[in-house]
Amino acid sequence: MKTRDKILLSSLELFNERGERNVTTNHIAAHLAISPGNLYYHFRNKSDIIYEIFLEYEKLVDFYLDIPEDRAMTLADMTFYLESVFDGLWSYRFFHRDLEYLLDSDQRLRQDYREFTQRCLTAINRIFERLAEAGIIEAQPEALRAAMSLNVWLVVTNWMAFLKTAHAEETYANLTLNELKQGIYQVLTLELPYLTPAYRDRVLELREQYRPTLSDQEEAAPELSRVASR
Amino acid sequence: MKTRDKILLSSLELFNERGERNVTTNHIAAHLAISPGNLYYHFRNKSDIIYEIFLEYEKLVDFYLDIPEDRAMTLADMTFYLESVFDGLWSYRFFHRDLEYLLDSDQRLRQDYREFTQRCLTAINRIFERLAEAGIIEAQPEALRAAMSLNVWLVVTNWMAFLKTAHAEETYANLTLNELKQGIYQVLTLELPYLTPAYRDRVLELREQYRPTLSDQEEAAPELSRVASR
DNA sequence: GTATTATTAGAGTATATACTCTAGGGAGTC
DNA sequence: GACTCCCTAGAGTATATACTCTAATAATAC
C-alpha cells in the first residue's frame, strides 16, 4: 500500500480511537514508523488529511443513499439505509465529534459539509416520499415531511454523542457498533405514528430487533434501560 | 465583583464566542487584564473553571425543569419549558460543542453530566406524562414515552450544531438566540401525531410561531419575541 | 550505465499552552 | 510599627505541536 494511503488509514484509525484533538501529526507518523518529514511530503498539513478522509466519508454515504427510482421501495430497503448510515457513522465516528472545530478550521470542509448535509436531508425526504408511495407510511404534506427528515438527521447524528455521555467510566473507544445501531430504534420511533395499518406490525417487529438490550446498556446506564424496556 | 466571579464570567463569554478549544487560560487572563498567576490563584486549572461553569448550567436547567405537581399542566407551561431549555443552551452554548472532549478530560464532569442527562430525560418524560393527564397529548405506554423523550433530548441538544453547519460563511459567533429557538419548531414536530383533537390546532398555531423563515437568516424574527415574553 | 524524479529520514524550529514561583502590595488587627 | 491574610503581578518553564529543511536513498526513464 502507498504511504499516502497508509497515512489516511492510520489517521482515521487514531482519530476514531482517541479523537482528532488528541492525535497529532507526530503521533500519526510514529504510529506508522515513518518520519514527520515523510508525512508532510504527502500532506501539506493536518487539515488536508482530515479533508481527504471526509471526502471518503462523503462518497460512502452518497453511495449508500442513492435511491433506486425504478421500483417500489421495500422495508428491506429502509433497513438497508438505516444500517448503512450507522455503519458510515461508525467508520468515521471521529468526524462528528469535533465537527464544529473542524468546520471552523477549514473553509473547504465547511462548504462541502454544508452541501453534504443538504444532500442527506434531501435523500431522507425522498425516502419518506417513496415509503409513502409504497404504502408503508401515510403520505404527509411536504412541510411536515421536511421537518420530519430534519428530526431524523438530528437523531442520527447525535445518537453517538448521547451514547458516549451515557457511558460512565469507559472512554470513547469503548463504544460498539451494536450499541450504535440501537439508534435505529430511535429513528423508527419517529416513524411509528405515520405507519400504515398494513405495515405497522412489521415495522414494530423490526424496531424490536434494535431495542437497547439489558446486557448492552446495563454497564452504561442501568436506569435508562429499565425505563426504556418497561 | 470578585475576581473569581469575573474569571468565570469572562471564561463563559470567551468559550461561547470562540469555543473552549480556542480559548487559553492566558487569553482569559489577558481579557480581564489580570496576570496568569492571579487566575491560577483562584483556579487550579482550566478544567476547574469549566467544571464550575457546568455547575451553574446544571443549576439553571434543574431550576427550569422543576415540574409543579399541584395543578394541571398547561400549554403555557410547555412553552415555558421549551423556551427555557433553549435559553439555557444558548447561555452555555460552548458546552455541547466540545462535550466529548470535556467529559474525557474530567471524571467529575463526566459523572455529573451523566446524572444531569438522566434527570433531564426523566423530566421530559414527566412532562409528557403531565401533558397527557392534562388532555393535551394522548397517553402513551411508558416504553414509547421513554423513547420519545430521548428523541426530544437528541433533537434539542443537536439543534445548535446543526444550525452552525447550515450556515455558510459565518462563524460560531453569528448564531442568534432567535434562530436557536426555531429548534422548538422541531420539538413540536415530534409531538404533532400525539396531540388530542382539543389541542391540536392550538399547538399547530404555537408551532407556526417558531417556524424558520427566510428573513430569520438575515435579521431577528420579530414574532418570536412576543412568545418569549409571555 | 547516467540523469531525473519520487520518496524518506531525522534533526530542528517557532510558537503556543498550561501552569509555577517569587516577590510584594493593601487592608485589617494588635 | 509589626504581623497576618488575601490577593496580585509578571517573569519564567517544561512540554507539546505543527511544520520545515537538508541530505540521502530508492525508483524510473533514457
- Cα-atom radius of gyration of chain A: 20 Å
Strand fraction band of chain A?
A: under 5%
Assigned CATH class of the largest domain in chain A: Mainly Alpha
Unreliably modeled segments of chain A: 216-230
Portion in helices of chain A: over 70%
- Give the N-terminus to C-terminus distance of chain A in angstroms: 51 Å
CATH third-tier fold name of the largest domain in chain A:
Tetracycline Repressor, domain 2
- The CATH architecture of the largest domain in chain A can be given as Orthogonal Bundle
Mean pLDDT of chain A: 92
Oligomer: homodimer
Give the tally of structural domains of chain A. 2
Order of helices and strands of chain A: HHHHHHHHHHHHHH
CATH-assigned homologous superfamily of the largest domain in chain A: Tetracycline Repressor, domain 2
- Largest interface by residue count? A-B, 48 and 47 residues
Largest sheet of chain A: none
Number of strands of chain A: 0
| Coarse structural class of chain A | mainly alpha
Number of helices of chain A: 14
Q: What general form of chain A does the structure show?
A: elongated
Short structural summary:
With 230 residues, chain A is mainly α. Helix content of chain A is 73%, strand content 0%. The first copy, chain A, binds a DNA duplex (30 and 30 nucleotides) through residues 3, 24-26, 34-42, 44-46.
